[in-house]
Structure formats: C-alpha cells, structure tokens
Amino acid sequence: MSTFETTATIASFGGKLLKLKHRAKTTKCDMNLNLYLPPSATSSSSKDKNVPVLIYLSGLTCTGDNCAEKGFLQRTASKKGVAIVYPDTSPRGLGVKGEDESWDFGTGAGFYVDAVTEGYKEGYNMYSYITDELPKALFGQFEKLDGSRVSITGHSMGGHGALTLFLKNPGKYKSVSAFSPICNPINCPWGQKAFKGYFGDDKQDLWKEHDASELVRKWKGDPLDILIDVGTGDNFYKQKQILPENFVDAAKEAGVGEGVKLRMQPDYDHSYFFISTFGEDHVEHAAKYLLK
Ligand SMILES: N[C@@H](CCC(=O)N[C@@H](CS)C(=O)NCC(=O)O)C(=O)O
C-alpha cells in the first residue's frame, strides 16, 4: 500500500513535480510536500534507479510550494539528475493553543526541532519528521530514489534547519548549503521566541543543541564545505535575525573556518528573487557531493 497520495503531477524542466500528501505519525496530521523527480527518475526506460536527493527546507510562513514554484532549483536538478524534496514547515491544524497567534511561531514555523513544551510536544516534531519519518516513507515508496545519497539546503528558518540537521548528524547528509540562514537562533529574536515556545525558558541545553553556531563550534567530523549566501539588502539580516558572522566566527574558533564559505551578495533581499538568482550554485554544490 502506498504511503503517499499523489494529488497532482506537474511537468517541470523535463521532469515531474509531484504534489504528495501522507499521514505522519511524528506530527500527528496529514503532511503535504512536493517531490521533484528529474527525467532520470521518471522515464520508465531509464536504467538509472539511483537518483540522489536534495532536501530543501523552507522559511517562516512557507509551505513546500514556495520554492517549488519560484526557487527555480528544478532547472539545475533536472540537468544534474537530482531529485528535490520540498517539505512543509510545521504540522497544520492541530489546534494547539497559541499556534496561530503569530507568523513566526507555531503554524508555518516549526523550526525543525522536536518540542518538549505542553501542547507542542505531541505534534511539533519537525526534527524527527525530516530526519527520520519522511525519508523512510519516501525511500520506501519511490524506488528510484537513492536513500544513501541525500544532501540538504534551506532558506532562513530552513537554512537553520539545514545547518543544524547536517551538524547534528555527521555523515547523514552528503553536503549542506543555505540561503540567508538563521545562524545563531539563541541570540536573535526569531530563535529566542521559537526556542522559548518549543523548549521552554529553562532548557538552555536544548537551545544550544539546535543552534548552528554552537554546533559548528564543537564540530569534530569530516572537513566542512558549507556554502552560505546572504543578501546585503536583506532586512532580516539588518535586523540581526540572520547573524551569519557569528557562524563564521564560531567555525574559526573551532579551527574549521576554511570550511565555511559565506558570500555576502550585494543588494539582494530575503525573497525568492534572491534564492532563484543563486539557486543554481546551491544545487551544483549538492550535486558535487551527491554525484561523486
Ligand atoms: N510575513 C513576514 C515575512 C515572512 C518571510 O519573509 N518569510 C520568508 C521566509 S523567512 C519567505 O520565504 N516567505 C515566503 C515567500 O517569499 O514566498 C513579514 O511580513 O515580514
């Protein structure tokens, strides 16, 4: 029996974008996502059964649709023969008190963590969903996808997700990159609000375990090659929500500074005009490791 219901199939850059829906145990609700299959994964005559996968984690207020529709990652993914998974950013419709009161917490703002606070701990488990339940379900059903070759990227809150999931799970992902990631959530308003709500004020150890700058400071794994793009015209960067310099400094303190490539892109903002401009570089960065 299929785990996923395919609610639409859309031709895109020679491949197919599938709109999928499945019941998730970790988030206690139906989850929607998009899966881009490049031509090598859709042609029935293709002998290639080993299509690597790039996971793209979206930012605050997004669903799996934002980047699938206007990130233009599919063009390069099609050329390279890489599938892309665009998951949602939180559980939806759980009815938890407070989940719909603001755009930067709760619905659309799961922060890729497993919550421990009352009300949220039951279904706000995006860490387990992305690292475990979703890949198991996808690789169980889509036989052409190669579950041993997975990379991760993301934007803003999703960039925080990509960096932390990569750094917390050495070897699980072949590479990581990020667009304007929240690099030091324990020191910015978005992160502090989310971590207070999902972990509680008293759980500073958990806060640090999900902070990319804290994690890179302790990195003991293979040499890093992390690509980060941030626009100098990004208002959230100006408001000190992104703090990429803190990540670079922490990597330098740990002696792994050469493994972090931060590109400050002049004038670019936080939007999908920025992501679509540099998307090719990020898919190529992933492909370099996925196709090795
Ligand atoms: N709703 C927020 C903006 C939220 C926002 O910019 N979200 C980013 C991710 S952090 C995004 O990708 N939004 C969706 C889009 O641009 O398509 C505001 O009014 O300031």
From TrEMBL:
This is S-formylglutathione hydrolase. One of its GO terms (biological process) is formaldehyde catabolic process. It is an enzyme of class 3 (hydrolase). Keywords: Cytoplasm, Hydrolase, Serine esterase. Its main location: cytoplasm. One of its GO terms (cellular component) is cytosol. It comes from Tothia fuscella. InterPro entries: AB_hydrolase_fold, Esterase-like, S-formylglutathione_hydrol. It is found in: Cytoplasm. NCBIfam families: fghA_ester_D (TIGR02821).
